[in-house]
Amino acid sequence: MAIERELETIDLNVNVGPQHPATHGVFRMIITVDGELVVDLDPVIGYMHRGGEKLSENCDYRQAIGYQDRTDYLAQFNTEFCYVLAIEQLAQIEVPERASYIRVILSEMNRILSHLMFIGAFGTDVGFFATPFMYTFRDREMIQDFFEEVSGERMMYAYFRPGGVAWDVPANFKQRVRQLLPAIQRGLDEVNELMTENEVFITRCRGLSPVTPEQAINWGFSGPMLRATGVRHDLRRAEPYSIYDRFDFDIPVGTQGDVYDRYMVRVHEIEQSMRIIDQALRQMPDEGPIMAEGVRRVLKVPEGEVYFRSETPRGEYGIYLVSKGGDHPYRLKVRSPAFCNLSALREMSVGNYVADVIIILGSIDIVLCEVDR
Amino acid sequence: MADETTASPRHDGAIAEVFQTVLPDVEFAVAETASDIALTIDRADLERVMAAARENDRLAFDFLRCVSGVDQISALESVYHLYSFKWGHSVAIKVRCTPDDPHIPTVSHIWQAANWLERETAELFGIVYDGHPDPRPLLTEEGLGYYILRKSHPLAPIEEWQEDFLKEIQEAQARMATAAGPAATAPIDERALKIQQAQQKAAIMKKAREEARARGLSGAEEKEAVTAALRAWEEEQAAAATAAPAAAAAPAAPASDTASKIKQAQAKAAVMKKARDEARMQGLSPEEEKAAVRAALDEYAKSQAAPPAAPAPVAAAAPAAAAPMDRAAKIALAQKKAAAIKNAREQARMQGLGPEEERKMVQEALQKVAEEG
Q: Where are the alpha helices (DSSP H) in B181-326?
């Protein structure tokens, strides 16, 4: 008995971050450990809070597009898409066919881009030192080059506009996308060989921090985090926006809601996005306007409010827009999916090992600019 | 749960009726927004309505999408967007409270997702969610003490770091003033002149553009209006230049005023720099440093207010005020002040007071410190 007492461990606080590669940005966790076991975890966010919602309320509607790029900087087209759709719904703007197809194709490409980033970074978290990172970044680079050709920017595209897109896409748009798709598929096959079918990887991730569907819904999970628990819910299907009702695609779900399922859902979503892009390319008209007629540069939106939600790579991205008439929003609230997904980090982590907390955090796929806004 | 949620109509007017039949004695103000039905209720009913929304089988709102604060000037609004995975319908619930009494019951025991969402709204809007299990500020560790997303909060107050920049502008303006005065003693600073001209030009362009927008002119017309305004201004400038030699002969009266302002700004900058350097030498934390700088500035302002008749010896008086003799005392005072502020704020929060009362308490505490000092 006396010896056991001597070996008794005490609780120790371990501070991870805010500047730490495993925190995927500027994020801090205060972990209380008992030996290797996590007994408490306190996430600290807010390092990237720029008051962007307030800034948007002082811009006109077009100027605030750029701010949307700066929330989720890995899925800029998706966030812009949600924002312009919210304005269009409130101002009742009819978007030309061709513009809708361009937006959907770019958004789905962006989803692939974001999920590739996840796979690379997650691989590093799990312990494949940099190999998956190199593989996925090779593919990401191709897509980013393509986005640069379209929008003129590498990261902050600001290409979508209420009513359409800023300018027409290059003449070889369809051809370029068709070239990219097989290359992405090849890259994905390599990743599958390297990670998905890797026994060590599976052992590490299977059964780690399982979440039930009831818990996930109660915690406000959305996107791949929710679907990994087996809830077949995707806003593109549940509340189809833009032209998503025209495409045939599956909603991949997991069975156990563990880390491996979260990874698998994202891998399958890349395939589904490619299916959507393939159909959109076939349906997209070659000619036609890319901007709705009569939409002024300084747009005046009638009084009213809308909570527009769309499916970004991280889940339900919502824009709560309150307009009192005039040319800027009265209130613009961004419902950020990563914020809600991250809020349950403590519940998911307690009882696991410290090294596994890094994997759990990685599996949420956070973007801190979107969490803090 | 694994069933695919099916597409549902976005407008479901029936939901308001269901709420009414479930809770016949609650008053619902029904409004239709561009995305959902919005029900405004009294805050006394919130807990009952939310519990019923979650538990009642016909409502079954199991997913809290978002909690958003809205500052409606006369009232603070808390908006809850709900979604039901069972029925696929959604609704927005709104509750209002006055800024003097910003208390709203929490819903975090009904949906865990509300935990962080309410903490964020509480921090940015100053709404107190009564009964919240963890009411710490979310984005900043110690809380800001003011609520940045309220409309009453200015977008960008002049900050400490901007004062150097302001000083530069003032200097440039002073040089302009002296240049406009006796031309023989002070040669015209071309760069400053250019800056001034550019600023004037920008102001004119902005004004013209705003006027054009207010009148609802098109892009081309707006451009024309701006160029016309610029041409008018240039002609005016040319006319003034020919008349300038005559004006230059008379010594400019306001020059001395600007000069004293510059001196003041310089003295202020010196005080700030000194206080900061001292704080760093003593190895104080950034907060303490800030407090010390603020205290030094206050002291300086007081010393300014005392001899209002003599603006000339200001520059000499300022370094004296920051003389090494009372350095330690000043810092001690600043620390005392900071502690008093922190104490008062904590007490106010413990007592669950509103932000206005909290501010009052802080002011009282500061007064007490000043009296003691």
A: 190-215, 219-249, 255-281, 286-305, 314-321
Quote the minimal CA–CA distance from B37 to chain A in Å.
10
Q: Is residue A45 less than 8 Å (CB to CB) from chain B?
A: yes
Q: Do B5 and A233 touch (CB under 8 A)?
A: yes
Strand, helix or coil for residue A269:
helix
B7: nearest CB among A219, A240, A309: A240
Are A304 and B33 within 8 A, CB to CB?
A: yes
* pLDDT lower than 50: segments of chain A: 1-2
What are B160-194's pLDDT values in tens digits? 556 666 677 777 777 777 776 554 444 455 666 77
Tens of pLDDT, residues A248-287? 999 999 898 889 999 999 999 999 999 999 999 999 988 8
| CB-based contacts of A365, cutoff 8 Å, min separation 6 | A114, A118, A122, A224, A225, A262, A266, A313, A314, A338, A341
In the block, tokens 């980090």 appear at: A345
C-alpha–C-alpha distance, residues B34 and A320, integer Å: 11
Q: Residue A77's pLDDT is what?
A: 92
Question: What is the predicted ipTM?
Answer: 0.87
- Read off the pTM: 0.68
Those residues with Cβ within 8 angstroms of residue B2's Cβ, 6 or more apart along the chain or in another chain: A230, A231, A232, A253
Per the structure block, which two tokens stand in for B115?
A: 């935990």
End-to-end CA distance of chain B: give it in Å, rounded: 67
By residue count, chain B amounts to: 373
Q: How far apart are CA B228 and CA B151, in angstroms?
A: 36
Distance from CA of A344 to the nearest CA of B (A): 8
What angle (nearest 5°) sits at the alpha carbon of residue A89, between those of residues A57 and A318? 60
Torsion of Cα atoms, A104 then A107 then A108 then A110, to 10°: 160
* Cα separation, B154 vs A54, whole angstroms: 10
Residues 318-347 of A with CB under 8 A from B: 318, 320, 322, 327, 330-331, 333, 335, 339-340, 343-344
How many interface pairs between A and B have CB atoms less than 8 angstroms apart?
120
Asked if A123 and A157 touch (Cβ cutoff 8 Å), the reply is no
What three-state secondary structure class fits A7?
A: helix
- Cβ contact B149–A51 (<8 Å): yes
CA B62, distance to chain mean position in Å, is 36
Phi/psi at A116 (nearest 5 deg)? -65, -40
Dist. CA A16–CA A33, nearest whole Å = 12
In this structure, are residues A335 and A343 in contact, taking their beta carbons and an 8 Å threshold? no
Task: Flag whether residue A178 sits within 8 Å of chain B, measured between CB atoms.
Answer: no
Cβ pair B70, B77 in contact under 8 A: yes
Question: If you count them, how many residues does chain A have?
Answer: 373
Element (H, E) at A13: strand A11-16
What is the C-alpha to C-alpha distance for residues A60 and A56, in angstroms, rounded to an integer?
8
- List A residues 213-272 in contact with B (Cβ-Cβ < 8 A): 213, 217-220, 230-233, 237-240, 245, 251, 253
